[in-house]
């Protein structure tokens, strides 16, 4: 007999290790361990979601006839790590070896490979592209543009294809997907589930052991099994999908989810299969229930971006998270952990993150990410924050988004230019500025929006690196046209702001 490892983000019945396993002889090992729960200070909601979904999945495997050796966190024999549990179970069952589906983090891949046990790693077949597919595509290309990779994935999956042509004649309808914040949101948000008895037990455990971590544990409403996650998906396809495209980039003071699907956590943990999700979304289009711009935009996020960032993570290797191409070294400000800030956009995104373990893409990229990049925060600290606070965060998907897309710390592998903006972008896409202590129109002065000051400070301090970037020429031309006094005022006010930030003052 062999041990078959199932990790907390591998809760899928079609997982390769289960498909290759032998129900009659092998033993499935699942373990809630301190190491996994504490390698970053995860949001309590994320830990509760993981443990509740693990417990239910373990039970469903037993119901299906598997022998499952499940270690709860509070088990007195719990060794505290995945490798420790495998070694303990190997001697308990006199196992010939361990088979596992490749984990989504180098940290665990290395730990499993280094165990004093016979091991066999299987590919994670829940993704559309294999590592080989991605490497074949990437080989010899000067720039790894997501758009071209995405087209390959469309062909491979046959999603939104009309023969060998893209449905509707175009591959990408992003142009239609940049509408500013709507006056009214017609969708009531994600489906919310009342915790059952098993989930309540987990909530008590998490409150006891991780109650001090940043983030509100309750109210807890996430789906914790595939049945619930599918109900949630159907609810969103009906009510949210039709407007998903139009308002994908919008942000509102009083609406946290707008038309977003809130499916990342379910797909990444294995409760929903990405291809099944896309097929259901495509069906809504074929049935005339959702427009092409929404459906194409959504499918692109999953078979395009999601697959592409995974390809980058595995291609770039374990040192990716340590990259810091711009040499940024400022400490992550306390506001990211809930300290007061006068910036309404930051306050809204961080408060929501604390309460929901969720923020949507533009909040992550153009508010908290943009601020960290403009202010020159150490990308390793930014990366740890994102990995900790979002329920959908695992390194394979979080790191390329943070280190690459958001912080430009990989020197432009993912982003062809840094995602930076002044307050104007946030003003255009949200209603945050109206209720802010700063004034988005003010470029200098006491009430000047910090994004306005830091935007020019960033461009000025990184001039040598970016002046030749054809996509940034305009920015430098605008800066250079300002009269010198004004430029000096902007830079000295930005310095003043950064000093206050470093001194821990409320900004
Ligand atoms: P929707 O907006 O409804 O999109 C649908 C789905 O598309 C998502 O659930 C996700 O599976 C996929 N998707 C969309 N954009 C991306 C992307 N850039 N990369 C990978 N998948 C994508 N996504 C994570 O799953 N985990 C993370 O830890 C994570 N960290 C991020 C950090 C930063 C700085 C940025 C800019 C983005 C990050 N993303 C991450 C991508 C994206 O923000 C989230 O997938 C999305 O906000 C999840 O919410 P949703 O399910 O409502 O997504
Ligand atoms: C996120 C997480 C947490 C909080 N706890 C566990 C755990 O106790 N046991 C486990 O198997 N997995 C957990 N996970 C998910 C893992 O961290 C995840 O499998 C790896 O980071 C690889 O992606
Ligand atoms: Fe954010 Fe500036 Fe708008 Fe305030 S004024 S909400 S800091 S963009």
Features:
22 helices, binds flavin-adenine dinucleotide, binds ligand DLZ, 3 domains, 49% helix, Serine Threonine Protein Phosphatase 5, Tetratricopeptide repeat, single chain, five-stranded parallel sheet, mainly alpha, two-stranded antiparallel ribbon, 507 residues, binds iron/sulfur cluster
Word description of this protein:
The chain has helices at residues 16-20, 34-38, 44-63, 82-93, 106-113, 131-138, 146-157, 197-210, 226-239, 241-244, 264-269, 274-286, 292-316, 344-356, 361-375, 379-389, 395-406, 423-429, 450-461, 463-466, 473-481, 484-502, and strands spanning 3-5, 27-31, 67-71, 98-101, 119-122, 161-162, 165-166. With 507 residues, the chain is mainly α. Strands 3-2-1-4-5 form a five-stranded parallel sheet, with helices on both faces. A two-stranded antiparallel sheet has the order 6-7. A hairpin with a 2-residue loop joins strand 6 and strand 7 (165-166). It is built from 22 helices and seven strands. 49% of the residues lie in helices and 5% in strands. It has three domains: 3-122, Rossmann fold, CATH 3.40.50.620; 131-189 and 240-316, Serine Threonine Protein Phosphatase 5, Tetratricopeptide repeat (Alpha Horseshoe); 334-502, DNA Cyclobutane Dipyrimidine Photolyase, subunit A, domain 3 (Orthogonal Bundle), CATH 1.10.579. The structure holds flavin-adenine dinucleotide, ligand DLZ and iron/sulfur cluster. Ligand DLZ is lined by residues 7-9, 31-33, 36-37, 42, 47, 50, 82, 103-105, 108, 394. Flavin-adenine dinucleotide binds next to helix 11, helix 13, helix 15 and helix 17.
